[in-house]
Design brief:
Number of domains: 1
Order of helices and strands: HHEEEEEEEEHH
Low-confidence stretches: none
Shape: globular
Distance between the termini: 41 Å
Strand order of the largest sheet: 1-8-3-6
CATH architecture: Sandwich
Radius of gyration: 15 Å
Largest sheet: 4 strands, antiparallel
Strand content: 25-35%
CATH class: Mainly Beta
Mean pLDDT: 90
Structural class: alpha+beta
Length: 142
């Protein structure tokens, strides 16, 4: 498993937590669980409500939409971040292709972090606004 600094680096490289300070990232990391899953484990299922966010520390996962593989994820990649903000159905199924080590943040643990450090919420909203602006810019270019 990666050292604490590597976990913080992985969290800092996600768009959701990119505006957070080192202290805030440490709070998020402490609220997260490190788990190991075997190859073949379904991590999230398309159409089912999401309740957690995953950061891949080691291993590889396949992303499937409508039963078709659309991407492969590896160390440093993440998925399920929108599940921290809503409980809407997942947009894809993610399955471990290899044994994996993951950092998992549940929606309830995330809410606890927000409750204890409310300024994180403003930083998350700024990150979301940046993400929306980028999506809008790309849509205009099409």
């Amino acid at each position: 498993m990666p050292r604490g600094d590597a976990k913080l680096d992985h969290l800092a490289n996600t768009w959701l937590f990119s505006n957070c300070s080192g202290r805030e990232l440490r709070l998020v990391a402490r609220a997260s669980d490190e788990i190991t899953v075997p190859a073949g484990k379904v991590l999230c299922e398309e159409g089912r409500p999401g309740r957690e966010f995953f950061v891949i520390l080691s291993g590889r996962a396949a992303v499937r939409r409508h039963g078709r593989k659309v991407a492969t994820l590896g160390p440093g990649d993440y998925f399920g971040e929108l599940a921290l903000l809503d409980r809407l159905p997942r947009s894809a199924t993610v399955v471990a292709e290899t044994d994996m080590d993951l950092l998992v943040l549940s929606q309830s643990a995330f809410n606890g972090v927000i409750d204890s450090v409310p300024q994180i919420a403003r930083k998350l909203m700024a990150a979301m606004a940046g993400r929306l602006r980028e999506a809008d810019r790309r849509a205009i270019q099409l």
